[in-house]
Amino acid sequence: MDAGGGDVLGVVAKDAESQQRLAVLSYEQVRRLNDVMDEVVCIHGRGNFPTLEVRLRDLVSVVRGKLEADTANGGAGMKVRDIRLNGGAASHVLATESQPYNDLDLIFGVEFSSGRNYDRVKSAVLGSLFDLLPDGVSRKRITTCSLKEAYVSKMVKVNNDGDRWSLISLGNSRGYKNVELKFVDTMRRQFEFSVDSFQIILDSLLLFYNCSELPISENFYPTVVGESVYGDFQEALYHLQKKLISTRHPEEIRGGGLLKYCNLLVKNYRPARPDCIKTLQRYMCSRFFIDFPDIGQQRAKLENYLWNHFVGPEEETLKHQYLVHLHDVVEESTVCLMGHERRQTLTLINNLAWQVLCQQDQQRLMSQHQQQQQPQPPPPGTFVYGCYMYPVLSTYNYPCTCNATWMPCST
Fold first, then answer.
1. Beta carbons of 261 and 272 less than 8 angstroms apart
2. What is the separation, in whole angstroms, between the first and last Cα of the chain?
């Protein structure tokens, strides 16, 4: 009897924990979600391929249709468990204050029981892009390979113990939101910090679009459920509203978590538990250098992160401060490197910070010159310690991926 009672209590506790992860969205949150789903996204094509302009809700429906269609009809023949909005867009929907976001992250729950399913997913996405080509575009010579080169910026496949998922990123134009399509069977780690742990289940909203002719209003809107994979929805929402940094099992965070952590710092987030932050920083530094051990990889990762996450005038001004935060964290919390390796990385961050500072100063001086209409432009550098400092622009050449299919996951 005691054993049975213990089993019942365990089930009850598990159900209670599961319920803590979920919350029903308010009308205001559903309205913001509807605005996001109605947003027209631009997927820019390389070369002569046209820009695809499509509402996010329509893109989701087209991709799901391709995934679930029979293979005889050009589909993947797969079942989609659910569709979720993730990342910064989900935080924007749930937050009481405006939360800017760079990407539109979507999660499709599918099954990767066979390795062939990864290629089926890729074919379904490319088939969706083919269907979304504007009228008047000749489709005779367009192949799946050319569509991939034109519209796909990144593809990642993960298939190991506890992790079976893939990522296909559409669009790579600066200043525009990229669309990240993630197809997940199982994933051990779905978040870095509590403030980015939110997932909004879209199925009820998509069903509402299909069944209702009336628009969403305060008295007529679907029930939409959100989940925090951090564990406690209300606690994670409190962290988001108060700009607090918190996580669980920091040893599982991938190398990119260090860069995300410093991004939160520069945007005035602060640790929820200051007494534990040094341990968290050591974990993140160690994982960063495990995933990016070579100085060339570190440079490429940092330059790519700066390019993708600091877009627009307001974000651009934060670049230098961001690199200062990163330098301080690496200097204080790196315990896994030899002295010369540590100095090498710190020098890299310091040089990038100087480049950013010089570029910002150059832009400011050129702006002043244009406003004052001076006859001669000021020197394109910054005057420091009695001499002009000039930015050294990166000449790193990113490898061509024309013949590549999937990238390894290291972020």
1. no
2. 49
| pLDDT tens for each residue of 300-315 | 999 999 988 888 788 8
Residue 141 contacts by C-beta under 8 Å, 6 or more apart in sequence?
none
Give backbone dihedrals phi and psi of 210, rounded to 5 degrees, phi first.
-75, -30
What dihedral do alpha carbons 239, 28, 109, 143 form, nearest 10°? -110
Long-range contact pairs involving 336-343 (C-beta distance under 8 Å, separation at least 24): 336/285, 336/286, 336/289, 336/290, 337/289, 341/289
This prediction's pTM: 0.83
How far apart CA 226 and CA 23 sit, in angstroms, is 5
Give the residue from 236, 206, 238, 233 showing the smallest Cα distance to 222.
206
Tell me, what's the pLDDT at 71?
A: 86
Angle at 216 between CA 211 and CA 220, to 5 degrees: 85
Q: Which residue has the higher pLDDT, 400 or 150?
A: 150
Q: What is the pLDDT of residues 191-241, one digit of tens each?
A: 999 999 999 999 999 999 999 889 999 999 999 999 999 999 999 999 999
Instruction: Compute the distance between CA of residue 31 and CA of residue 220 in angstroms, rounded to an integer.
Output: 11
Nearest to 30 by CA among 202, 232, 237, 243: 202
Tokens 């993730």 identify what position?
86
pLDDT of the residue at 406: 66
Assess contact for 343 and 334: CB atoms under 8 A.
Answer: no
Cβ count near 225 (within 10 Å):
17
- Phi first, then psi: what are they for 360, rounded to 5°? -65, -40
200, 297, 298, 405 from 291: Cα distances, Å: 30, 9, 9, 21
**CA-to-CA distance for 341 and 338, rounded, in angstroms?**
5
Element (H, E) at 54: strand 52-55
Residue 199 and residue 226: Cα distance in Å, rounded? 6
Residue 75's pLDDT band (cuts 50, 70, 90): confident
Residue 362: its pLDDT value, please?
79
The answer for residues whose C-beta is within 8 angstroms of residue 152's C-beta and 6 or more apart is: 125, 126, 168, 169, 170
